[in-house]
Amino acid sequence: xxxAPKITLPRILQYVFMALLVAGSVLLVLNQIQYFGLADxxxxxxxxxxxxxxxxxxxSMTNPAVNGDLxxxxxxxxxxxxxxxxxxxxxxxxKYLGFILFKSLAWVCGLLVLYQMFRIFQNLHHGxxxxxxxxxxxxxxxxxxxxxxxxAFLAARILAGIVRALPDYQSVAVRPADSVExxxxxxxxxxxxxxxxxxxxxxxxxxxxxxxxx
Amino acid sequence: xxxxxxxxxxxxxxxxxxxxxxxxxxxTLANLSILKTGKAKAIRFGTLEAICAALxxxxxxxxxxxxxxxxx
Lengths: 214, 72
What we know:
heterodimer, A: alpha+beta, two-stranded antiparallel sheet, 4 helices, 58% helix, elongated, B: 72 residues, mainly alpha, 8% strand
């Protein structure tokens, strides 16, 4: 008789998170190769910025407290930029290094979230739901989730600063593509996860009592 | 916990081993061991009834309340 492995939803999700983890790790390594120019000797950094060439219109402010021109900018022009650096030595300037550091930090935090999810679903597949280990992992996720948009936002701010200093962009208004709202969203998700941790903790307590009831 | 399990005392009185009691009560050796070492948080009436029947004793012979014993 042939043994057929049982396919369950936790098992499927475990493989999905493992695949995402592997793909993310490969992309992280490829990013580092690109940043430091390890493949072709031409280091470069890439990312999105929001730009606006000119104010789309000027209007007079009707607010009596502050009179003057209100300038409205259309920042809908999302641009993907590749900034080639002169040499490998330039990468170690603080602004480039800062960008690489925060961008990589966002990736690492994201990968750690995926790893924790992978381990949680591995435990769920083995029928270990209400366990202290799972609570610890869910708590890690709650801490890591807001760190991803925060690090990405800081990297985007540094990139916007780099782009502003470029000769072609002197007369262009540049803003980071990532917004502060993403960080707020991350914090909200973290709060929701912390609420789930509390429920999980009570479940674990009940499970422990059940296990020690003879 | 202030509740003390005197299962080992009753088993010694009846000269019954843990394995023998586990077979008679129909619970695992591991669970009986948890009960005997006082690690258990609760005991079902069904289990208590089976143990009392196997050891021919009263629940009070197995369980004892000791006030002030709060460390575990």
